[in-house]
Amino acid sequence: LLEMLPWVVIASIAAIGNAGVPMGCYFLTSAFLVGFDVRLELMGLILPLYSLFDMVETALNVWSDSCVTAITDKELKATAPILDCAEPSKSG
Fold first, then answer.
1. Which residue of 33, 45, 46, 64 pairs with 38 in a disulfide if CB–CB is 3.0 to 4.6 A?
2. Are 60 and 53 in contact (CB under 8 A)?
3. Neighbour tally for 14: CB within 10 Å
4. Residue 18: CB partners within 8 Å, gap ≥ 6?
């Protein structure tokens, strides 16, 4: 169990930085399988299913980013002062 702790930490850090890379987890997983001395041919069994999971994961990521952007835009519009750019400045 203590032997797996560094792998869990490395995988967690790599997964955070890997979110925006298409099929990035697939390549990350292959690197970890090689590190665990697992045959890389097993990735051929995972690839057809992983493509479906990756598409859903990407759609959820884009949707959540859009939601956060919409909420931020709404909040900023509610608190930001409205400037009228049509009025000429009084300084010049």
1. 33
2. no
3. 14
4. 24, 25, 28
Scan for tokens 């099929």, then name that residue.
23
Percent of the chain with pLDDT over 90: 10
Structure tokens given for 62? 């884009």
For residues 25 and 54, the answer to whether their CB atoms sit within 8 Å is yes
Phi-psi region of 43 (alpha: psi -120 to 50; beta: other; left: phi over 0): alpha
Q: Which two tokens stand for residue 28?
A: 């990350």
0.90 surpassed by pTM? no
DSSP H or E run through 4: none
Number of neighbours of residue 46 by Cβ within 10 angstroms = 14
Question: DSSP readout, 46-75?
Answer: HHHHHHHHHHHHHHHHHHHHHHHHHHHHHH
Q: Tokens 């493509």 appear where?
A: 51
3-class SS of residue 88: coil
